[in-house]
Amino acid sequence: MNQETSSPTVPGIKPEAAGAEEVKRFTVDLPTNLHVALKMRAATLRLSMREYVTTIIEAALNEQKDKE
Questions:
Q1: 56 domain-assigned
Q2: Which of 6, 24, 27, 42 is deepest in the core (most CB within 10 A)?
Q3: Contact at 8 Å (CB) between 3 and 11?
């Protein structure tokens, strides 16, 4: 079963304002120690893990784009 979805109302993900960007889901398996560190850093920043990971990915992609 393919777990990727284009539904903006995926359980656990709050839909944004009307007309918001489409949402896709993917799964990443992490070593326990990395998962704990990620969760702790996100909590320290008062972000959900989803928000924190999205921020990190966006920053990395923007940095790469700036180098091109």
A1: yes
A2: 42
A3: no
